[in-house]
Each structure stands twice: as C-alpha cells, then as structure tokens.
Amino acid sequence: MDEPWDFEFLSRVVEGFVSFLSEFVDDWMANDMRVAVFKILFSWLILSLIAIHFAWKVYGNTVNDMYYRQGTGGQNGGTPDTAPHLSGWESASGDALKSHRE
C-alpha cells in the first residue's frame, strides 16, 4: 500500500507555494513589459467573465427557453408532427407523410 502523507511532503508543497507567491509578487511589483502585458490580459479576462455573468443573468432564461423548445412529445419538448409553417397546398398534396421507418 501507499505510504500515508507525511508532514515533510506537505511542508514541501506549502514551501513551494509560498516561494511561487513571493516570486509572483516581486514580478507584479516590477515595472516590466511582460508584467504590463499580463496585467492587461488578466484585466481583460476578468472583465469578460463579469460581462458573461451579467449577460447570462439577463438573457439566460431566453437562451434556456430556445434550447428547451416547447412542443408536443419527445425529449426536451420535441417537435410537432407537422410543421406549422407549411401552407395548405404543401400539406394537402395527397402524399402520405413519410415515417421514420421509410
């Protein structure tokens, strides 16, 4: 069996995380071009996520209703047996409607 996690392993993980954070803070405080690009891209990511969140709050129900169509039968509301947009001469042509088996 595997050995249980010991204190040494956890202390190494914590030490590595702390060193990463301290290095990240040092780079963040530097006036370097790559830090400036990172700040711009990170700000764009956060702004995009906030915009998506608010857009979903506003339009989420509409998108959900479009996906889950209301209708008779079938999974997710399904589709009706005849299309409501067909005119009278298209549906009354005398031809029997083809079924899935044909």
Automatic annotation (TrEMBL):
Sequence segments annotated as region (Disordered): 70-102
A GO CC term attached to the entry: membrane
Record-annotated membrane-spanning stretches: 36-56
InterPro entries, per the entry: TCTA
Pfam families, A to Z: T_cell_tran_alt
Source taxon at top rank: Eukaryota
Similarity section: Belongs to the TCTA family.
Protein name: T-cell leukemia translocation-altered gene protein homolog
Species per Swiss-Prot/TrEMBL record: Coilia grayii
